[in-house]
Design goal:
With about 120 residues, the protein is an all-alpha fold. Helices cover about 90% and strands about 0% of the residues. It is built from three helices and no strands. It has helices at about 1-15, 25-65, 70-115. Helix 1 (about 1-15) runs parallel beside helix 3 (about 70-115) and helix 2 (about 25-65) runs antiparallel to helix 3. The longest helix has about 45 residues, at about 70-115.
Length: about 120
């Protein structure tokens, strides 16, 4: 997903820097809104998974405190090991989606400037 998101964002950045005269901003904006909705959906799914792992981490940490056993501590560490990459990935998706919103604003400005 990261590769797809970055390549799409770079393609739009290049389009915004060097637009062709035959470019229809309405079509580009329409496609961009569809892509944003795809990435928003992906972001939502990752948010839900991240929240689920955070909840499992919290429950396993509480269980480790209440029932201090090596298995509980191992489970807590396993959930933590899975939670950290999910948080990093969600952070990345959130920031990249915000950049797509900025591109959308730039596209609207370009459309207003085009006669």
């Amino acid at each position: 997903m990261k590769k797809r998101l970055v390549s799409y964002r770079m393609r739009i950045d290049a389009l915004l820097e060097n637009p062709s005269d035959a470019l229809s901003w309405d079509e580009v904006i329409g496609e961009h809104l569809v892509q944003i909705s795809f990435f928003q959906h992906e972001r939502l799914v990752h948010l839900l998974v991240t929240l689920a792992f955070a909840l499992m981490e919290l429950v396993s940490a509480l269980a480790t405190v209440v029932y201090p056993q090596p298995g509980m501590a191992g489970l807590m560490l396993l959930f933590l090991a899975l939670l950290v990459p999910y948080v990093v990935h969600y952070y990345y998706l959130e920031n990249e989606t915000q950049k797509l919103y900025q591109q959308y604003d730039r596209m609207l400005e370009r459309r207003r400037q085009t006669p």
